[in-house]
């Protein structure tokens, strides 16, 4: 029942106003979205650094310098000459030492050891940052509704990545292997990009309110979203193919372009000594690099098609996102060619790999904006 009003109350008296309330979607279970987003950005930067360090570890042939997997005690490096001697003797028992590095000195061994140790140590840091952040937000009850499974899943994938890393390294410690198996390296790098992509997608989602996302979704451009999803999958395939190239040093055997040592299709492409023909798709340097090159050309063509569609978006932010994808894709093509021409020199090859990270994230961003466009204003000429 409304309160009674006095007959002496002035007609023009000011009335108390009630402040507008936020929507029910944002008002319930929103959690610490900003804090979680900052934590995810930190994880993203660490994982991106991990990918770069992993690439350098491969390029410096350091990945087989540590012959054991000790997730906890392995964090402690050799502390004296006796410890270094023990580690060196373990390395001497590997095929890489016997068949390729038999002349290596203790000081040279220390150099490759530190690369691999740093790579593994960074993995431990990432695991700790995830655990502290996730369980901290969980205990505080600050995880938004619907996000516990997503954030926990990142940790599960991170743990799997550590196990796959050892599965990869172990392949190069027996028999006549002087490098890790290329398909295991591709699995390891592929999962790293999956983790990086998930984190990036979550950062984009948490940067906007649930109400904003709900409203934006109604204006999503489905065709453009489908095309950008295809581009994302294609780019991931190219990353995996690049890992196969790196795994067998295929990038160093054909330092010419657009031909491959004077030929369009390399000679003996399906020949691998003592192996069936199908093994050539993983182990023949010529065939592996040929497939990577052809896939790169097709990816670029498809990227142009998606860009032409994206530049016609009704939303300026979406247009800009696809322009950025196209710019970095062009740079990646140039870097890829330069990597081949320089026989995969370390500084060029690692720049190419870092470029793949930028391209991957920009594609995911463009895909996100296709699904959840940011409305502009009439003055800016956008919807």
Elements, N to C (H/E): HHHHHHHHHHHHH
Proportion in helices: 55-70%
**Compute the gyration radius: what is it?**
27 Å
Kindly report the oligomeric state of this protein. single chain
Structure, explained:
It is a single chain. The protein has 383 residues and is mostly helical. The protein folds into 2 domains: 29-76 and 85-207, no CATH class; 217-383. Helix content is 64%, strand content 0%. It is built from 13 helices and no strands. The chain has helices spanning 24-27, 33-59, 81-92, 95-99, 106-139, 148-170, 182-206, 210-217, 222-247, 280-283, 285-310, 316-341, 346-371. Helix 2 (33-59) runs antiparallel to helix 13 (346-371) and helix 9 (222-247) runs antiparallel to helix 11 (285-310). The model is unreliable at 5-27 and 378-382 (pLDDT under 50).
Features:
single chain; 383 residues; mainly alpha; 13 helices; disordered C terminus
Describe the protein's topology.
Elements: H1 24-27, H2 33-59, H3 81-92, H4 95-99, H5 106-139, H6 148-170, H7 182-206, H8 210-217, H9 222-247, H10 280-283, H11 285-310, H12 316-341, H13 346-371
Helix pairs in contact: 2-5, 2-7, 2-13, 5-6, 6-7, 7-9, 7-13, 9-11, 9-13, 11-12, 12-13
What's the quick description here?
With 383 residues, the protein is an all-alpha fold.
């Amino acid at each position: 029942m409304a309160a009674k009003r006095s007959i002496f109350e002035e007609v023009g008296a000011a009335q108390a106003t009630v402040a507008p309330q936020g929507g029910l979607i944002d008002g319930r279970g929103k959690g610490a979205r900003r804090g979680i987003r900052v934590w995810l950005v930190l994880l993203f930067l660490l994982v991106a650094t991990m990918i770069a360090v992993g690439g350098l570890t491969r390029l410096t042939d350091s990945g087989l310098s540590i012959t054991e997997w000790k997730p906890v005690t392995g964090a402690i490096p050799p502390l004296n000459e006796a410890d270094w001697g023990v580690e060196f003797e373990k390395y001497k028992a590997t095929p890489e030492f016997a068949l390729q590095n038999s002349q290596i000195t203790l000081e040279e061994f220390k150099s490759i050891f530190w690369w691999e140790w740093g790579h593994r140590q960074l993995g431990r840091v990432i695991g700790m940052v995830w655990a502290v952040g996730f369980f901290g937000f969980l205990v505080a009850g600050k995880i938004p509704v619907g996000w516990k499974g997503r954030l926990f899943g990142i940790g599960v994938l991170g743990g799997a990545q550590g196990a796959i890393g050892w599965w990869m390294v172990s392949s190069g410690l027996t028999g006549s292997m002087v490098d890790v198996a290329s398909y295991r390296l591709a699995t390891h790098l592929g999962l790293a990009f999956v983790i990086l992509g998930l984190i990036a997608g979550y950062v984009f989602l948490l940067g906007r309110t649930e109400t904003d996302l709900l409203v934006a979704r109604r204006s999503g451009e489905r065709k453009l979203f489908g095309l950008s999803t295809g581009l994302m999958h294609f780019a991931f395939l190219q990353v995996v193919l690049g890992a196969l190239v790196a795994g067998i040093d295929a990038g160093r055997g054909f330092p010419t372009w657009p031909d491959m040592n004077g030929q369009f299709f390399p000679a003996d492409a399906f020949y691998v000594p003592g192996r069936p023909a199908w093994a050539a798709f993983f182990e023949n340097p010529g065939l592996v690099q040929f497939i990577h090159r052809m896939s790169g050309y097709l990816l670029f063509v498809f990227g142009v098609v998606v860009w032409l569609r994206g530049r016609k978006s009704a939303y300026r932010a979406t247009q800009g996102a696809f322009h950025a994808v196209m710019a970095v894709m062009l740079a990646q093509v140039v870097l890829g060619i330069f990597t081949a021409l320089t026989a995969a020199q370390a500084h060029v090859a690692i720049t190419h790999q870092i470029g793949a990270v930028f391209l991957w994230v920009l594609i995911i961003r463009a895909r996100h904006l296709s699904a959840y466009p940011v409305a502009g204003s009439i003055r800016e000429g956008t919807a």
